[in-house]
Amino acid sequence: MREGQAKRKIRIGKVVSDKMEKTRIVAVERLFRHSRYQKVIKRRKKFMVDDPKNESHIGDKVRIAETRPLSKRKRWRVLEILNKVEKI
Alpha-carbon distance 38 to 42, whole Å? Predict the structure, then answer.
């Protein structure tokens, strides 16, 4: 990596929508402890992710990485599919 360049963020999430061509919606969950009450809280954020080969489908667990803006809301891409869900 070049000097002065930040390392790209990587997240692991679950595909929740595959209705678009070459785009997936991936939900990433994170757990954190509330600063005052110390209760563990679960938060979920959805990302629009580029999947140029249309390989991932709903339910798949994927690793995504930050990238340059590909469209208005798409700034992530699929690195790899960790778990494939079998269709019945």
Answer: 13
pTM to 2 decimal places:
0.88
Q: What CA–CA distance (Å, rounded) separates 59 from 84? A: 8
Strands (E), the chain: 10-20, 23-33, 40-50, 61-66, 74-83
pLDDT score of 48: 98
Burial of 15 per CB tally in 10 Å (0-12, 13-18, 19+): buried
Q: Report the topology of domain 10-83.
A: OB fold (Dihydrolipoamide Acetyltransferase, E2P) (2.40.50)
Residue with tokens 């110390």: 38
Instruction: Report, in angstroms and rounded to the nearest whole number, the Rg of the chain calculated over CA atoms.
Output: 15
CA nearest neighbour of 49 among 69, 32, 29, 35: 69
pLDDT tens-digit readout, 35-58 = 999 999 999 999 999 999 999 999
